[in-house]
Specification:
Low-confidence stretches: none
Mean pLDDT: 88
Largest sheet: 6 strands, mixed
Radius of gyration: 25 Å
Distance between the termini: 69 Å
Number of helices: 2
Number of domains: 2
Helix content: 10-25%
Strand order of the largest sheet: 2-3-4-5-7-6
Order of helices and strands: EEEEEEEEHH
Structural class: mainly beta
Length: 170
């Protein structure tokens, strides 16, 4: 599905558009699955348009701390300014696109896809306070505690600990 908005002949004012479809319609793959929903608010003025888009989709992740698989919503929002100028072909800057006054439609499909991909969290956590796994025995600390001594120090770091203690006593 291509998300096109017809702007030719559009009067000044605010317009709302809703798009819905399968994620593969906009060339998204894992971790996204099932459907996406996009709400667009387009405000047109004489020489410019401001587009605000909000998209939500389901995704499957593996927790970076405990390793369990979980499902989550991924939400993206972005704003784009379209300026009408006498140009031969559309030009783009960061969040500004220059359009010819003869432009009939704007296609927001790739923007929706790109911003949804950028909304995937860097650190994927099944829950915000996930305790993860014990680094010694592998016990899931969200479900139980382990008997490992956590205050043991690796011998390779002992010299640094001595140096730290030396500076803390002065």
């Amino acid at each position: 599905m291509v998300m096109k908005i017809r702007i030719s002949g559009l009067d000044n004012g605010t317009y709302t558009y809703d798009f819905e479809g399968n994620i593969d319609d906009i060339d998204l793959e894992e971790p996204f699955y099932d459907k996406y929903k996009t709400e667009v608010v387009l405000t047109k003025f004489n020489d410019q348009m401001i587009l605000e888009a909000s998209t939500i989709s389901d995704a499957r992740f593996s927790c970076d701390r405990c390793g369990i698989d979980y499902q989550s919503n991924v939400e993206s929002k972005y704003k784009m300014v379209y300026l009408f100028r006498n140009v031969d072909e559309p030009k783009e800057e960061a969040d500004i696109t220059y359009l010819s006054r003869d432009t009939v439609n704007i296609n927001i499909t790739s923007d929706i896809r790109d911003y949804l991909i950028l909304a995937v969290p860097m650190k994927k956590l099944c829950k915000e306070d996930c305790k993860g796994l014990c680094y010694k025995c592998g016990t899931d600390l969200n479900k139980s505690t382990c008997d490992c001594k956590q205050d043991e120090i690796d011998d390779r770091w002992s010299k640094l600990l001595e140096l730290k203690n030396k500076f803390n006593t002065n």
